[in-house]
Design goal:
Blueprint: E1 17-19, E2 25-27, E3 31-35, H1 39-44, E4 55-59
Antiparallel strand pairs: 1-2, 3-4
Amino acid sequence: MSTQSAEPYVFAPEVPSLAVEGGGRFPVRRVYCVGRNYAEHAREMGHDPAREPPFFFMKPADSLLPAGSVFPYPPGSSDVQHEIELVAAIGRGGA
């Protein structure tokens, strides 16, 4: 006889969410990112955009900060690169 419950967690993990203009919240499960996608910034960072193409990576959903939040500067860090990201929240599948 199995003693496993139908739920995979004792307490379901909270899904991070962001406020939506006009009210409500949008759950954030995945954050996809593109690096080295601006040639000028790539050159500033010492890369050659003609030789090194953009790359893709992910960030954890709990790394998001809502608009107006204070960024907790990591202790012991002397070089934190600031970035502004565009979020495209897709609530339903495309047609």
